[in-house]
Amino acid sequence: MIYTLGHTESYLEYYNECLKNDSKFLKLGKKEMYEGKPYPGGYAFKTLNEALQYLENQKMYDYTVFGLLADWIKDTENTGEIYNNLLFDSEIVILDKFNN
After folding, report:
1. Contact 62, 7 (CB under 8 A)
2. Is residue 55 a contact partner of residue 65, using CB atoms and an 8 Å limit?
3. Separation of alpha carbons 89 and 50, rounded Å
4. CA 9, CA 15: separation in Å to the nearest integer?
5. Would you say the pTM of this structure is higher than 0.85?
6. Would you list the domain boundaries of the chain?
7. CA end-to-end span of the chain, whole Å?
8. Relative to the CA of 80, which of 4, 8, 39, 50 has its CA 20 to 30 Å away?
9. What CA–CA distance (Å, rounded) separates 3 from 5?
10. What sign does the dihedral 18-19-22-28 (CA atoms) show?
């Protein structure tokens, strides 16, 4: 598992929609064209701690770390930053703090 960030309220709404529609809860990967422009793919972090540290450093208090069913080496592209870009649409996993 690798990790990603999502706007907490939006992602939980999206998750509930996926449950109702029996569809997969996905993070977008790289697209040649998405909403009229190239999309490099969503942020992906190798470790939970790196994702949490990024949220703290960027003061992204309305975002949460989610898991991704993806492989760091095969499914992401290096950006030269602490995060990589996701190459393929990947299933999002809600981490334990939302399951309590």
Report:
1. yes
2. yes
3. 21
4. 10
5. yes
6. 2-98
7. 21
8. 8
9. 7
10. positive
